[in-house]
Amino acid sequence: QVQLVESGGGLVQPGGSLRLSCAASGSLFSANVMGWYRQAPGKQRALVATITSDGSTNYADSVKGRFTISRVNAKKTVYLQMNSLKPEDTAVYYCNADGWAGPDGYVEVWGQGTLVTVSS
User: Fold this and answer.
1) At CA 101, angle to CA 26 and CA 71, rounded to 5?
2) Helices assigned H by DSSP within the chain
């Protein structure tokens, strides 16, 4: 079974920075696209950023220029560097990954979420 373990969430003041990490477990899992989504209070889950195994990135307009997604394929880990945080960034951030998982075939996996609160 493939699992995603997230870390790095917490409380930060506006203008501050946080770095989220997400590591995929499973020796047979080879991640294709990894990404971050967020769900703010009272809103639906929305894309934040994705990154392919080749390093191609995609960002939501609301975070362009402030957030940076990266990954280390050998560690099956994806990161989200969040700078210039705003109160509107407050949300539960979910890691997502898809890829081949050996005999389980192609799977899509979600992390449990980590809460980011931007408040003074």
Assistant:
1) 65
2) none
